[in-house]
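Quick start: what a row looks like.
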Amino acid sequence: MEKIEKRIVKDTFGKFLIPTVTSSLALSIISMTDLIIAGNLIGPEALTSIGVALPVVILAQILYALFGMGGAILLSTRMGQGDRQGCSRIFTASMICAVFFSVVIGITGRIMLMPVTELLGGTVGNGIDGPEGYIGVLFIGFPMLVLSPVMVTFLRNDNEQRYAMICVLITGLLNVLLSVFFVKAAHLSGAGIALGTIVAEGICCLLASLKLFNKNRMFRLVRFWKRSDEKLFGLSCKIARQGATLGVIFASQILLTIVINRLLNAHGGSEGIAIYGILKYLINFIFALFDGVTGSMQPMLGIYYGEKEEENVRETARIGYISMLVIALCLAFVTALGGRILCALFSVTGEGMMRETILALRVLAVYFPIVAFTTFVNAFYRFTGKVGTAFCLSLLDNLVFGLSAVCIMVRLIGMRGVWLGLLAGGVATAIFVIVYCLFKRQGLLLLKKEAFVRPDGEFHSVSETTSDNIPALIEDLEKYCDEMEIGVKKAFYIHLVIEELVVNVVGMAENSRSGFNYVDVRITPNVKGEDGSVMLRVRDNLTQFDPSASEVGNINALVDGVMSDDSDTNDTEGNINELGLGIVKKIAKEYHYRRTIGYNNFMVII
């Protein structure tokens, strides 16, 4: 892989990583804030309440996975096709489903609060300071827990990554301030912490709606009953299928948490549940960081895998895994050596409970690098079309290996078997992945060579956007046309299209303040069978610019050779040769523009 292409992959990954990780981290901190405030302002009994309520939070994440992530994946496909109406219908269906199911679950949970609390491993009868107070308020505001991440995800998928990050950061700050206010000033105890979370998430929804429901967006809310070709139910099922794999992971976590809470209630009492609550929130914290990394990988892998760029896929995977491993090792270091500091942070004061918590944290330190590996391969399989493999791996990791190991270890050694069982389950999953990949003989990434076979006779060139590189590119094009025995007329058209588009990119780069810009040219012959059609693609990493949307004046006059010599052919700001682009559009059979993962992609078929 050439040095410049590696730099492109690295720079693109870096642009996605900061806002995505920041947003994921803020979401994790929001949930962990409840635990920290409860331990410091209320006491150990509040830690038990929040530990018991964790499946309710995960249930909200399941709905987000189904209708937020699932809708965003389907939306991206329609956006690439330029189907504005389809995008609006997907957005509308996702919002309707998210609202409907979150309201139903919230009302049901509130009505059946006492049996739900007992099912989750709590003890009924503790009053407002017990699980009922915290869980009860969560169910009242359950729609906010679901709608907030769903709306932020749609913003992020419509080139509003920074605004989405700002919404999440504001939500995290408000969550802390409001929770402290409701506990200290309003004396609402555990219910006050939940209320602070709900109000903060509601404000996040309000902030997101200011951008999300703007008329200038590519998608908007529409009425389904005006058309009969795509029903709400059918489209909702399509959306849910896209997010089903991630939803299964969250669902498995609910079942695992319920079983562990009940085991701890029998073998370790409230102290055991409180310790596991601390561990679980730390695990959620590192998974939030992992989600930020995989969220950066996903659009890049989707583009590169679809374009059959094997080296770019491998480079993206390499950078992603190194990032996850570094995160895991840093957190392992903190949890292994900073046990007493973490105990103080969560207000764990009893000597016996502190000793057991420190031991559990050291086990967790060994668990983190292992789970980094299994999480990475699972995400990579999902993003490269191996949904069935990822689905099975999720079930094995969370239920078959994880749950079985915990149940067996608890029976053998009691409460400590929970943390040791989690570690054993992670090790078993990692071993299974390695053995399975050895059996398949395709490497850990399970990449098949035939998936990256490019068309015969394809031309590909990547270079920095400087005017000095244009002559070398034109020379390479001449050699390519000669080698492929392309006719004089078509060869002229190829030269004309490429030169016009590349000159415009170079002109924009010279007016750009960014340090590193590139242009990627690809020519693919016979894209429509044997009719001789040639596809030309020019990609750059400059600011968004759609050549096909440029307003070009009197193109026919130019083509006929009657354009006056003093015509202004350049845009004063971007140095865009609009008349040249007009000629390109005039001779092209088809042309398409897409803005993907920070790239301008202009494709022409001649």
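That is the whole record. Residues 206 and 330 are 36 Å apart (CA to CA). Confidence is low (pLDDT under 50) at residues 124-131, 551-576.
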